[in-house]
């Protein structure tokens, strides 16, 4: 079956010069990735840095064509796509920096010693790449969470080959990005098979099941993620599945904050909800607002601003249909008032929606808790701190949890603590929709936000998903990996006899 | 049903003053552990250190009684049990040191900055405890991998409450250890419910299924581990399951090493196989020895020494029955010669066994690869490097992989590299049976050695299993956890704007 590229804005379809990948072809690609991973793991770290840098350059070299392709396939505005591509190139360079730093190897040396338990032998630990990683690109970020996205960049930084399943909503962009990355690989003389790209649902299944594949990175819906996670667990040799499955991202306005700045808060929330037509996995979908006049003013401002946004073209007709189905299901819940509702629209087109429900009802009705991917938010009105707490505990754990507070707000501390228990990122007086690439970012959260609460898909720690430790016991120096030799030839951060020692990366030659 | 303590050496049985724990009682205990975890997470880190130190002291205070109890229930020799208890107390103090160091929190601060991607907000990450941990004690280490073992100590170090399922082979020792730990908890005024202990198979199932339980640590057999792992995955909210399932632990003697020191190698291997009656999860079960005269001398020495060991009393009658069943199944494989075979024995008593098979057959016959827990080893005779490699690739991945080499051995580098691909610890010219508690130890390995190749159940990194990261975005200083405040009040290792900064733990008051 051939692969088709569709413009969600116009419905125009283009048949691509590529077909869905057969399961046999997927298995062959995974086998080549296995060989490539072994070879790649033997290359020097600075070669790995160079490769990541070259990938950033090649993406930038093709920027105009890549943005045009993504514009056709996603209907996202050009400035957003240019920004996303720049961020994607930056991400490759950031991971080159992570490689250079070397702390991700968790190198640790314990020289032989007499412990209270008797003699301990020389023990040296380092992390090694797990092997080929399967990456499932997302619908909503055609660059940053797709073929050249964080999963790909972090897996390459870890020393793993990557086979990517293209998202069906942007196959042409996926193929074009793959060409740019492959050009960088050829330029650097990378092992053949280091990168692979497959198309089609069955290809994705075959990829998770391929014996050489050692781990999976996935960004997408709860249903698709759970199904693939179950496949990964059902293998003869189960493999870790790092799924980022989206979430409802509660945002709380305290009574004091509502009193202080209702209009500005309503506008800020509306802008965050409408960003990218609501198609962010960090979109604040549940807005907890106090009952009473101050809260009414927040909701009025939110509704006015959200109603003025759009109409929107979503990423695909399928996503728009899911949005309409999800929104209708929420609206069918007795007690949920519809405050903002434009045209439902047709094909990929639709409008923003704002619902309202009281917190007690929200806490009771499970159906109200579902994420609705797209430009929709639910204002949950609470009577007091206890009702708020109960409603927040009823909401599913999330990627993010935001709180808007006033100066010396009596509710602030308890809400921040609650957020830390139920989300991977707690935002105070800000909005969760931006996910910066940095050392301290955590983009993850407790189930069902992700399948692995300890893992992040953004930021330096993303690389840790693709590594496992190995300890070398009484291994002679010439048989040790460079990271563990006494003289620290890589200049990386290490722990030596229990004390961390800073690294001094040499330029070149490592 | 009441719980019974059995002496495997004599068959003497004592009925304990405790019954199997009902599922309702397990759920109530898990709920209390949930509350205790929340309270514990709020306590200061130095309080946590004090608690761990107090547990070491209380175990030592009861040493005579604990060792006597374990002696009755396990038939392990007294010096071994005294050493194991000392190591177990040491482990609590070691984890107190890990807490003091603070690197396990992975604290990272990125101050607000203008990045190439535009402004980045203030982002600060720290790891938080996951919540109550369920620990399944092992049969073979009544202290070090049971109630007061590494899973319990590391979970408490991480800030989590612990509910332990006692191993049925040493219930009285489990109860006595629990009393010592509980005394330490009371002495330190720990939150009620911080520690729990349950007995019985159904109680174990209920524990994995209890909603408050956030993660599981397990040491035991592949069959039991896989079953509980499946339960953990089948929950409405799946939880991570860290199972250490044992392994066959290949040990390779190169041609050059066999030529150089055949007799000493045979004796060394035999001692490692017979240690603790072969009941170590790191027992070298597959001994790869070259064909020909030098190899014959290794096997002869191994057989002579192993045949002189024993007879043995295993940990329980059930374990001895499994040993006889497993050994008979291996011996029924056509082509496996029996070189050493004493009496099969009755009840918990048995003798050491040594089998021999050629490498080509080993590579073909899957049944030969199974771990046989107890005093048995299989000598696998190989003709050359290629046959050796194929046989090693056919063996299951393991916790450990040992290689005995000569000076400038032409086979050494390839074997060390192969070992690093297929095991969690690579030992050169040594034996895998000792597992030291240290910063650099990794006790884990690829499936089926464990269910999570990235995790270790021994050493400083064991604490990482019970933590998940949270990032705080633009959170005012007074709402930040202490680990993330600018002034570093805990004196812990942190990454600040991408650079690691050493910690300076203050004494007291943190």
Q: Mind explaining what this structure looks like?
A:
Two copies of one chain form a homodimer. Chain A has a seven-stranded mixed beta sheet with strand order 15-17-18-13-12-19-20, with helices on both faces. Chain A is an alpha/beta fold and 510 residues long. Chain A contains 14 helices and 23 strands. Chain A folds into two domains: 25-245 and 453-466, 3-Layer(aba) Sandwich (Aldehyde Dehydrogenase, Chain A, domain 1); 250-428, Aldehyde Dehydrogenase, Chain A, domain 2, CATH 3.40.309.10. The first copy, chain A, is globular. The longest helix of chain A has 24 residues, at 78-101. In chain A, helix 1 packs across helix 7, helix 4 (78-101) packs parallel to helix 5 and helix 9 (255-274) runs parallel beside helix 10. The interface between A and B is large, with 80 and 81 residues. Strand 21 of chain A pairs parallel with strand 20 of chain B, so a sheet runs across the interface.
Short summary of the structure?
The structure is a homodimer. With about 500 residues, chain A is an alpha/beta fold. Chain A is built from 14 helices and 23 strands.
Topology:
Two copies of one chain form a homodimer.
Chain A: E1 2-6, E2 13-19, H1 23-42, H2 45-61, H3 63-74, H4 78-101, E3 108-110, E4 113-115, E5 118-120, E6 123-129, E7 133-136, H5 150-158, E8 162-165, H6 171-187, E9 195-198, H7 201-209, E10 215-219, H8 222-234, E11 241-244, E12 250-253, H9 255-274, E13 286-290, H10 293-308, E14 312-313, H11 317-332, E15 337-341, E16 349-350, E17 353-358, H12 359-364, E18 376-382, H13 385-394, E19 398-404, H14 412-422, E20 423-428, E21 467-473, E22 494-496, E23 499-501
Parallel strand pairs in A: 3-22, 7-8, 7-10, 8-9, 10-11, 12-13, 12-19, 13-18, 17-18, 19-20
Antiparallel strand pairs in A: 1-2, 3-6, 4-5, 6-21, 14-16, 15-17, 22-23
């Amino acid at each position: 079956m051939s692969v088709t590229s569709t413009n969600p804005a116009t419905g125009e379809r283009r048949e691509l010069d590529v077909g869905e990948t057969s399961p046999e072809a997927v298995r062959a690609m995974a086998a080549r990735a296995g060989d490539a991973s072994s070879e790649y793991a033997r290359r020097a770290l600075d070669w790995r840095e160079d490769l990541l840098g070259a990938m950033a350059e090649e993406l930038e070299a093709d920027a105009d064509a890549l943005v045009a392709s993504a514009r056709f396939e996603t209907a996202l505005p050009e400035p957003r796509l240019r920004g996303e591509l720049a961020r994607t190139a930056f991400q490759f360079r950031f991971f080159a920096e992570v490689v250079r730093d070397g702390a991700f190897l968790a190198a640790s040396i314990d020289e032989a010693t007499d412990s209270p338990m008797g003699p301990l032998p020389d023990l040296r630990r380092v992390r090694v790449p797990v092997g080929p990683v399967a990456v499932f690109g997302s619908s909503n970020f055609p660059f940053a969470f797709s073929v050249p996205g964080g999963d790909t960049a972090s897996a390459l930084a870890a020393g793993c080959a990557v086979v990517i399943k293209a998202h069906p909503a942007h196959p042409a962009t996926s193929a074009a990005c793959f060409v740019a990355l492959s050009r960088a690989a050829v330029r650097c003389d990378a092992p053949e098979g280091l990168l692979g790209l497959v198309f089609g649902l069955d290809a994705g299944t075959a990829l998770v099941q391929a014996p050489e594949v050692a781990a999976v990175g996935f960004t997408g819906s709860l249903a698709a993620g759970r199904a693939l996670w179950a496949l990964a667990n059902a293998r003869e040799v189960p493999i870790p599945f790092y799924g980022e499955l989206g979430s409802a991202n509660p945002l709380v306005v305290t009574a004091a904050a509502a009193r202080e700045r209702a209009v500005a808060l309503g506008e800020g929330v509306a802008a965050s909800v409408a960003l990218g037509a609501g198609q962010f996995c960090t979109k604040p979908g549940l807005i907890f607002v106090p009952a009473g006049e101050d809260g009414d003013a927040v909701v009025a401002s939110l509704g006015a601003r959200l109603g003025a946004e759009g109409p929107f073209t979503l990423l695909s007709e399928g996503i728009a249909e899911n949005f309409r189905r999800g929104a209708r299901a929420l609206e069918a819940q007795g007690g949920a008032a519809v405050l903002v509702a434009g045209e439902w629209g047709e094909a990929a087109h639709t409008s923003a929606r704002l619902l309202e429900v009281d917190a007690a009802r929200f806490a009771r009705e499970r159906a109200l808790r579902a994420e609705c991917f797209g430009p929709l938010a639910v204002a949950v009105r609470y009577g007091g701190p206890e009702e708020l707490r109960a409603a927040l505990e009823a909401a599913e754990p999330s990627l993010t949890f935001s709180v808007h507070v006033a100066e010396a707000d009596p509710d602030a501390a308890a809400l921040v603590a609650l957020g830390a228990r139920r989300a991977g990122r707690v935002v105070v007086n800000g909005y969760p929709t931006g996910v910066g690439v940095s050392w301290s970012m955590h983009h993850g959260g407790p189930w069902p936000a992700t399948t692995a609460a300890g893992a992040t898909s953004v930021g330096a720690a993303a690389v840790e998903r693709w590594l496992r430790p190995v300890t070398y016991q009484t291994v002679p120096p010439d048989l040790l990996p460079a990271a563990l030799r006494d003289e620290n030839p890589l200049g990386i951060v290490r722990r030596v006899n229990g004390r961390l020692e800073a690294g001094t990366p040499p330029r070149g030659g490592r």
